Amino acid sequence: MKRKNNVLGARKEDILADLPVVKNEEYIADVIGIGHDGEGVGRVNGFTLFIPGALPGEKVRVKALKLKKQYGYAKLLQVLEASPDRVDAPCPIYKQCGGCQLQHLSYGAQLRWKRQLVVDSLERIGKLQVASGDAGDAGDGSNEGRQGIVVHSTLGMSDPWRYRNKAQVPIGLAMEGGLVGGFYAQGSHRIIDMEACLIQHENNDAVVTAVKRIARELGIRPYDEESSKGLLRHVIARYGFNTGEIMVVLVTNGKEIARADELVGLIREAIPGVRSICQNVNRERTNVIFGDTTKVLWGSDVIYDTIGDVRFAISARSFYQVNPVQTEVLYRKALDFAGLSGEETVIDAYCGIGTISLFLAQRAGQVYGVEIVPEAIEDARRNALLNGVNNVQFEVGGAEVVIPAWKRQGIAPDVIVVDPPRKGCDAALLETILEMRPARVVYVSCNASTLARDLRVLEDGGYRTVEVQPVDMFPHTVHVESVALLVRNITH
Ligand code: SAH
């Protein structure tokens, strides 16, 4: 018989028997922090319990659920002493949906928490010294004489609702039959119908609602995951905030849509601003939304949007930042930190569709962008042409492979900008940055832990982190975005 042993040879049940908390029992917990998924981190008899819905500073009554050796999970039964930062979540489906994690925390407190998460990561993971106090959001790069890294207040939105420019809504068969579209009930694949999402632009809600109504009227069958029968799998709505252009994409389990002309006519009638109606075919049994083929049912294959002065073409499958208002704030900050005069050579690593590259190109001599997804580089080149930008060159490949090759070709950047995915920069890339010795490194990060880890490597290699600016790209969620400025030490 296979037994789960710990180092001392004790059985799992014995370990749990020794815990100061017993499964299914009720306790009073003191909440001391917020965990990675927005859950309260509580303490009971010195033991850590993760409590969804609880906030730091609160005293709560909970029921212990799943227990492990070092920590456990508990259900919030009652808030005995509420945090002054607790608010009523405005969304009626907040608890069922799981798309937002922080709606029960006031927006000001969310912004403070996001800054603190960056500070804690820099100190604990990066072993970096952070200047004391909240440095405000001056962000002029001048922290001469200060001890440690200046971490500014999180730049938040004046209206932190309805900020998303893209909705991707799964469609399914209701238990009682009929078509529903909305979100997956937490921890399941059951689709709950939804008419309004408070972080989604109103236009996207209206588009999805209209398409669902039309699909019902035309008798289009919803896709059923169980049997993989039925046609309509997902409705995607994209909205150009600065142009008003709308794209609708129908993801179907099959090439043919019966009465497609009628469908297009009804969508055009219901959605006056629509510029593009596309169909993407996905016949795989998969959670991946898009299949390989996309065709235009009506209108253009792209819609346009602008960030600052830069214009972007967005196709059905293009990556494009989902919060355009804060994207501009983030990129302006990155541009600021790059400190360009018009002459510099700049590398944009992990460049996606070239958004940051095109921003930088306006003030640089030459920009080189590298990205691993070939389609994104196609978009980047198209966007450069669209904007008449000719001082930027894009290459497909791993940043950790292409940038060393550029080094061998004699490219010597004054500034390197990196914007890696959650896992952070590849070690080989960090090494190349240290060898290339740019005067500045601007690090855009969506994960404070890997940011801190990578800053440590750059600091050890001769750079100093001057300041970090958190920017709230995803209000009411636990995602924390920030941009850091590093300069090369004069002595190195
Ligand atoms: N800077 C862009 C995209 C950032 S997202 C923007 O602001 O829009 C991170 C990007 O890194 C993704 O496009 C992903 O495809 C790309 N990527 C992931 N691993 C990579 C690697 N090893 N080398 C280059 N790009 C990579």
TrEMBL record:
Family listed: Belongs to the class I-like SAM-binding methyltransferase superfamily. RNA M5U methyltransferase family.
Domain of life: Bacteria
Entry's Gene Ontology molecular function annotations: 4 iron, 4 sulfur cluster binding; rRNA (uridine-C5-)-methyltransferase activity
Signal peptide: none
Name of the protein described by the UniProt record: 23S rRNA (Uracil(1939)-C(5))-methyltransferase RlmD
Residue ranges constituting the TRAM domain according to the UniProt record: 20-78
Organism: Paenibacillus cremeus
Active site: 446
Alphabetized UniProt keyword annotations: 4Fe-4S, Iron, Iron-sulfur, Metal-binding, Methyltransferase, S-adenosyl-L-methionine, Transferase
PROSITE patterns for this protein: SAM_MT_RNA_M5U, TRAM, TRMA_1, TRMA_2
Record-listed E.C. numbers: 2.1.1.190
Gene Ontology biological process terms, A to Z: rRNA base methylation
Keyword match Thylakoid: no
Keyword 4Fe-4S: yes
Entry binding sites for S-adenosyl-L-methionine: 321, 350, 371, 419
Pfam families for the chain: TRAM, tRNA_U5-meth_tr
